[in-house]
User: Fold this.
Amino acid sequence: MNDEPYQISRLIGLQRTAWYFFFAYFVVAAGLWVLGADIAGRVTFWGVVLVLAVTLSELVIIAEQFRVAEMRRFQILSYVLALLLLSTIVLKYFVL
Amino acid sequence: MMPEMLLFVLCGLLAGLLGGYLGLGGGIVMVPFLTVVAGLNIKVAVPVSVTAIVVNSLASSNEYLKKGMVDLELVVALSVFSILGNITGSNLIDAVPGNVIRLILAVILAYTALSLLTKKGPEKRVGFEDNRRRYLMVCVVIAFLAGVLSALVGIGGGVILVPLLYTIIGLPLTTARGTSSLMIGFSSAAAAAVYLLNERTDFAVVAPVAAGIIVGAKLGGFLGTMAKPVAVKILFFLVMLYLAYKLSYDALAGVI
Assistant:
């Protein structure tokens, strides 16, 4: 699999950074729940939103790697995936 | 509050460890743990599990990506259908009786567990391109159904996807697990978003479970890349068989 035409170092880098960030974030959020802080719910909510945002970013990075490798069909599919995720949120939030 | 929190962290830790090791989302640990051990309602446990699976995928797939054990083309191609299934499933949670879903999933799991142990999947990518083209439609349908079922019962769908990628497509088992671990993150994200917007997510449970799962997944993903295929196969078989038993037992006992 290492002979793939695209590079995945950016994706790996994003995931590594996200790992450190979300580890610290959710430990703090869990600590806030233990302390009974009022903002615990809001902090966790935004944590989940950030997780979803990073997942979207992963798709954009994958799409760009496919573009560089001139794998157009997969590039479009990656954006379709991102669009599907976004439209779910938009439809649920603003329409349904 | 404190013992409860520790219980949730432990749940996440175990789910992450097993999920990362096997290329699953960890929902097969979380949902039974949260319902049976922590005593939560399944309709609370499912959104928590689905949300934590996205976090799990971020952490566990990283180890597989680093070692080149993820097929990004398959991830993208199958995730589209898996996401559509997930959106469908997460909107159906109140409409479909839980015991019906459990029973269907139990049958699928028992079948895949047996086929995983009896069928010989190629460890090299011999004929892989042919298999990918020939069975793409079958995989698309299964990915969609995996998406529906995973959103309904709170599992990532890895228990269906790994055997699918291994036995039908012919990916090596380690690559099948790596591909699945990234895929389930994308598909579960859709369901997590729906549950979040429907206000079905219990944040007091999500925070400690996510903290636990992110550590467990990293460790599990690392161990998973070093594991021998035979050991993983046997462990996978046992996990799926247990899950099939648990689901069918709950379904027949009328537990929803």
Observations:
- Helices of chain A lie at 9-35, 40-68, 72-95.
